[in-house]
Each structure stands twice: as structure tokens, then as C-alpha cells.
């Protein structure tokens, strides 16, 4: 049995002359939440897309659930929530969930039950029969998360899942992510929110395409002799700049 859902080794990626990922190693064990934090443009989305097999890498390799990526069958087993919502605005929330559920081959007999489960998880049950064009930004984000959950995937890859979601619902969503984790699922999550980073089992700090530090939040705080992940991040960034300046 595979105990690591994701294993990325020495992943590098450039767009033209611009190196966006520089030999990144990353391991997501089963039943864990792995957070990627880093400033805008650090390479988080590119790393996620490389792991999903949506972006061809220039160097290194990625295995998901023991299979070398890209692999269509494995891609279909990953619940992916992209940074921008790809929803059918003229359809209702329920119709969107049904469409994506069918696309993901959710068995007909299970589809209605999975729609209820996913909608309930993101607190959208009462608005499910309204057209998406009338949804707020936060509601669209929640619907995208429900879509990522619709086929009950073992691995969820969530690119900034809580942007535009109010603090109370954010707490609920994190409580649910923890429940999913206890059930054996793994999650790879990008975030800018430091209190969310503290909730991850493992973190990678990524800046200018380089993995500056990896470990549990407690390990990172201890390593950098600081109290918060925000301070870890600031300190690691300053050290990176100082090292670059010394070159
Ligand atoms: N298809 C592309 N072609 C050229 N450059 C790209 C492409 N995709 C991303 N980049 C560049 O790669 C760098 C990393 O982008 P990426 O989206 O991975 O960052 P990010 O850490 O996810 O940022 P954010 O937090 O703003 O989403 C950026 O400089 C971006 O402009």
C-alpha cells in the first residue's frame, strides 16, 4: 500500500528564461494536510499544476498514489479546486454539481447523495437551486470546493480554497478538512492566511521558486526561534535575500 499520496522529486520548471520552480522536493503522506505558503508569484500554483500533471515539468518527477504523472486515471482521482472558479453561471449550484459529478463518473445511484453531502459540507444547501450567476464570490468559492469533493477523492488539491469566505465558514471548512483527514484523505492546500498555515500538518515555505523550509509548523517555529509562522516566513525570506546578496 502506498503511504505517500504525493512524492515530488527535484521538480523544476521555467517559462522562457524565468525559472519558476527550482528542484522542489515534496512528500504528502496519507491522512495529512500539507500547506504551501509563499508570496504572490512564488510558484505555488505552478507546483500544484505540475503535481496534477497539468503542467509539464522540465526536470524531476512526480508520483501521485504511486503512479508517475501525468496519468489520466490518477488525475481523475484527485479533487482539484483551482484558484479561479470554473462554474456554469447559467446553471444552478445543484446542476453544476450534477454536471461535474457525471464528468467524474460518480455512480448514478450515489450522485444525489454526494450532492447533498458536498453542499452540506460547504453550507450551500439552501441556495443550491439558485442560479450561480446570482451567487456571491464566497458562494462560488464554496461551490467550487463542493465540486472538488463530489467524487469523494482520496486526495484533494485546493488552491486558496478560503479566499472570499467569511471567518465563521472558514472555521467550519477547516473543521471538515480535518474530518476528511481523519478519514484517511490527504490535502495539498495553498494559502496566504497564516492561521490556516498553522493548522496544516506540514508546511512548505516557497519563495522565488525555491523551497525555503519544510516541516511541521512547530518544527519551523523552533528552527527559526520565533513564535508564529508569519515570523518564520519573514525570517526565512530575509535570510534568502541576504544569501542572494552575498553571492
Ligand atoms: N503559463 C505561464 N507563462 C508564463 N509565466 C507564467 C505562467 N504561469 C505562471 N507564470 C509565472 O510563474 C510565476 C509563478 O506563478 P504562480 O502562479 O505559480 O505563483 P503563485 O505562487 O501561485 O502566485 P499567487 O499566490 O499569486 O497565485 C509568476 O511569475 C507567473 O507570472
From TrEMBL:
Q: Per its UniProt entry, which superkingdom is the organism in?
A: Bacteria
Which SUPFAM superfamilies has this protein been placed in? P-loop containing nucleoside triphosphate hydrolases (SSF52540)
Q: Name one GO molecular function term.
A: ATP hydrolysis activity
Q: Which UniProt keywords apply?
A: ATP-binding, Nucleotide-binding
Query: Residue limits of the ABC transporter domain?
Result: 6-233
Coiled coil region boundaries: none
Pfam families in the cross-refs: ABC_tran
User: Which PANTHER family would you find in this protein's record?
Assistant: ABC TRANSPORTER G FAMILY MEMBER 20 ISOFORM X1 (PTHR43038:SF3), ATP-BINDING CASSETTE, SUB-FAMILY H, MEMBER 1 (PTHR43038)
Report the protein name in the record: ABC transporter ATP-binding protein
Amino acid at each position: 500500500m502506498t503511504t505517500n499520496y504525493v512524492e515530488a522529486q527535484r521538480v523544476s520548471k521555467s517559462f522562457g528564461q524565468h525559472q519558476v520552480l527550482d528542484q522542489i522536493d515534496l512528500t504528502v503522506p496519507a491522512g495529512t494536510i500539507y500547506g504551501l505558503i509563499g508570496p504572490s508569484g512564488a510558484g505555488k500554483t505552478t507546483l500544484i499544476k505540475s503535481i496534477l500533471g497539468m503542467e509539464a515539468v522540465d526536470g524531476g518527477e512526480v508520483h501521485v498514489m504511486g503512479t508517475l504523472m501525468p496519468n489520466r486515471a490518477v488525475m481523475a482521482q484527485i479533487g482539484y479546486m483551482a484558484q479561479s472558479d470554473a462554474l456554469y453561471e447559467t446553471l444552478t449550484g445543484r446542476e453544476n454539481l450534477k454536471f461535474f459529478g457525471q464528468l467524474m463518473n460518480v455512480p448514478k445511484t450515489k450522485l444525489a447523495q454526494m450532492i447533498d453531502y458536498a453542499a452540506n459540507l460547504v453550507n450551500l444547501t439552501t441556495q443550491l437551486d439558485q442560479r450561480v450567476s446570482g451567487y456571491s464570490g464566497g458562494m462560488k468559492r464554496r461551490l467550487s470546493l463542493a465540486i472538488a469533493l463530489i467524487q469523494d477523492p482520496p486526495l484533494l488539491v485546493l488552491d486558496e480554497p478560503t479566499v472570499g469566505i467569511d471567518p465563521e465558514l472558514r472555521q467550519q471548512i477547516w473543521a471538515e478538512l480535518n474530518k476528511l483527514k481523519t478519514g484517511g484523505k490527504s490535502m495539498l492546500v495553498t494559502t496566504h492566511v497564516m492561521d490556516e498555515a498553522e493548522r496544516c500538518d506540514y508546511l512548505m515555505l516557497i519563495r522565488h521558486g525555491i523551497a525555503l523550509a519544510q516541516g511541521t509548523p512547530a518544527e519551523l517555529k523552533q528552527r527559526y526561534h520565533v513564535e508564529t509562522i508569519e515570523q518564520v516566513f519573514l525570517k526565512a525570506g530575509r535570510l534568502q535575500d541576504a544569501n542572494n546578496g552575498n553571492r
